């Protein structure tokens, strides 16, 4: 939390803002298989996005961090390398809206903070809705794994 306050909150005025989706997860991004290659490789592309209920004006780096956090959690649950998956997700995002150096520098801090937010929210939701504990805890372990691994990628300033 201190790293987020120190490295992100103090630099908000220098970061790009825009309309963000706010919930760019694998359930809200519609993919389509693309033709090409030798038929053996499967190539996929985004063909749509749904569920704009969390859309709002915020910092573009937050959108990327939300998306990458979801992708990394999914990778952990599928026994894939979370950083390889994140790299592909980031490359795809940057074909549309490249991140600036300041955004790249804080990306892993923002991902870590998103993990902390998810874990904290889950803990509160369990207290408020104990009957939904299984659903709420569905990603808890994977989010914790992402957080523990991402913290090693944060630049120590």
UniProtKB/TrEMBL annotation:
Keywords: Cytoplasm, Kinase, Transferase. SUPFAM superfamilies: Protein kinase-like (PK-like). The keyword Kinase applies. It holds the Pfam family APH. Residues 10-94 form the Aminoglycoside phosphotransferase domain. GO terms for molecular function: amino acid kinase activity; hydroxylysine kinase activity. Its EC number is 2.7.1.81. Catalyzes the GTP-dependent phosphorylation of 5-hydroxy-L-lysine. This is Hydroxylysine kinase. It comes from Ciona intestinalis. The lineage of its organism: Eukaryota, Metazoa, Chordata, Tunicata, Ascidiacea.
